[in-house]
Each structure stands twice: as C-alpha cells, then as structure tokens.
Write a structure and sequence with these properties.
This protein is an alpha/beta fold. The protein has a single domain, classed as P-loop containing nucleotide triphosphate hydrolases (Rossmann fold), CATH 3.40.50.300. Helices cover 30% and strands 28% of the residues. It binds guanosine-5'-triphosphate (GTP) and magnesium ion. The site of magnesium ion (MG) has 6 residues, from α1. Keywords: Cell cycle, Cell division, GTP-binding, Magnesium, Metal-binding, Nucleotide-binding, Septation.
C-alpha cells in the first residue's frame, strides 16, 4: 500500500500534555537520544529541509512539537496524522531542574496522550546496544496499549561500512535503516510507518 505525501506543516509547540492541540488525528511520536536524528528524520519523511529544527549540537529540540502531515492513498483517500518531534533523552548539558521537568512532562505526554498510535524509537546505527536505548524500550513496553505500536529505526546508516551494515541488519531483523544523506528506502519506510499508525 503506497501513501503519497500531500503536505506537511508545523502546528504548535507544547511544554506539557495540557498545552497539546486538540486530539483530532492519530499521532506518531519520534523518540530517541539527543542528536540521534529525530528532527532530521521527520524532515526526511515530510520531504522538507527545515520543517523540524535540526542541529549538530545536542539538545536542539526542547518542546513537544506537532506537525500535521497529509497523505493520499487510492483506497483510503486523504489521511491526516500528527508527527510529533520530542526533545532527546539523555542530554546532560541542561540544568538538572529543567531536565527533571522535561522528563516529567514528557513521561506524562507519552503515557497519557490517547491519540498516540505509534512510537518510533530512533537509534544511532553506530551505537546499537546502549543502556539508555534498552531502558527506553522497557519503559515504553510497560505501558504500551493494544492499539499502539512500537518500531525501531536506525539512523545514520551511511556511517557504517558494508560489513557493519550487514551485521546490524542481522541483529535487528524487524528494524528499518535510514540515512538522511542517501535517502534510498525512504518511500518504503514512510509507507511502513503509516500502515503501522493505522494499526495494520
Ligand atoms: N550522516 C548522517 N547525519 C545525520 C543523519 N540524521 C541526522 N544526522 C545529523 O545528526 C545531527 C543531529 O540531528 P537532529 O535531527 O538535530 O537530532 P535530534 O535527535 O533531533 O536531536 P535533539 O533535538 O537534540 O534531540 C545533525 O547534524 C544531522 O545532520 C543521517 O542519517 N546521516
Ligand atoms: Mg531534534
């Protein structure tokens, strides 16, 4: 099933679940360590350069950012989803009090926002077995509902050599692998994410 991207736009930023927009659409949240490439990946999905703000410096995204994305499919017509860009986990250089507040707000949002249908966990291809990523998996699976899905996508796949690529694919058979430089399988990844958001 193929989904054609019609348009995507920034909607709003929220500090916590109370500030989030009306829950009109199914939501896809992008999670992962700071600097893993969450904002870049959203731009890749939406085929825009600067929709979500990315940066070489970790800690760029500091709020819960909502992007409305619209898609077209022959059988289903027009579909709309919110893509949600989040601050990264494990960024050390912000004040401790601010970090705790972010975490509390973020945890509340992740656990209580009914419209989240898909959690996309992004992992750096060069560091596939970090403790912080393992913790994230167990954290999410503890409250994952039956109508929600959890997927893993490895970013920065271009940074690996052929041997490392083969090894990573063998170790994570259900994951997808993405490169913002090569963009080779982005159409396949898009369709895969949308199907999962629809619960298929
Ligand atoms: N080579 C390569 N670089 C990438 C890829 N994806 C992201 N980057 C780079 O990684 C850096 C961080 O990207 P961001 O998208 O800002 O990361 P983030 O996860 O949103 O970071 P925070 O907002 O700080 O949590 C940027 O310099 C991107 O250009 C990729 O697939 N390949
Ligand atoms: Mg970001």
């Amino acid at each position: 099933m193929h989904y054609q991207l019609l348009r995507s736009s920034f909607v709003t930023s929220a500090q916590n679940i109370l500030e989030c927009p009306s829950p009109l659409f199914s939501e896809v949240v992008f999670l992962g360590r700071s600097n893993v490439g969450k904002s870049t990946f959203i731009n890749l999905l939406c085929n825009q350069k600067n929709l979500a703000k990315s940066s070489q410096t970790p800690g760029k995204t500091q709020l819960i950012n909502f992007f409305l994305t619209e898609w077209f499919n022959q059988n289903q017509g027009i579909l709309k989803f919110y893509f949600v860009d989040l601050p990264g986990f494990g960024y050390a250089k912000v004040a401790k009090t601010q970090k705790e507040l972010w975490n509390k707000n973020l945890i509340e949002f992740l656990q209580q926002r009914d419209n989240i249908k898909l959690f996309v966990h992004l992992i750096d291809s060069r560091h596939p077995f970090l403790e912080i990523d393992k913790n994230l998996v167990s954290f999410i699976t503890r409250f994952l509902r039956k109508d929600q899905k959890f997927l893993q996508i490895f970013t920065k796949f271009d940074k690996l050599n052929a041997n490392e690529k083969a090894k990573l694919k063998k170790a994570f058979t259900t994951a997808k692998f993405s490169s913002s430089l090569q963009k080779t399988n982005i159409v396949e990844i898009r369709d895969f994410l949308i199907q999962n958001t629809l619960g298929k």
